[in-house]
Amino acid sequence: MSDKSTAENMLDAAKAKVNEGADRLREAGHNAAHAVTGDAHHKAEALEDRAKAEVHNAEANAEYNEGKREAHDGDGH
Fold first, then answer.
1. CA distance linking residue 67 with residue 61, whole number of Å
2. Distance of alpha carbon 52 from alpha carbon 58, whole angstroms
3. Would you write out the chain's pLDDT as a tens digit for each of its 77 residues?
4. Integer Cα distance of 73 and 2 in angstroms
5. Which residues of 22-60 are buried (b: 16+ CB within 10 A; e: fewer)?
6. CA dihedral of 23, 25, 27, 32, whole degrees rounded to 10
């Protein structure tokens, strides 16, 4: 059970989605750099950023679901 309120969970979900978006943008940049230069380092960084994005996506979903559950509990926290 979370000690956070519904609003706190939703805010954390939004932050995680912003972080996911930033990770995906970095991934795209590294993929573009790899396509231009062929440097395997860029491909490795793209894969790392994709993994980070997936973690942030999972965090966002968990926070959202917890916030939704808290909202349906009736007490909001």
1. 10
2. 10
3. 457 899 999 999 999 999 999 999 999 999 999 999 999 999 999 999 999 999 999 999 999 999 999 888 866 45
4. 12
5. ebbebbeebbebbeeeeeeebeebbeebbebbeebbebb
6. -170
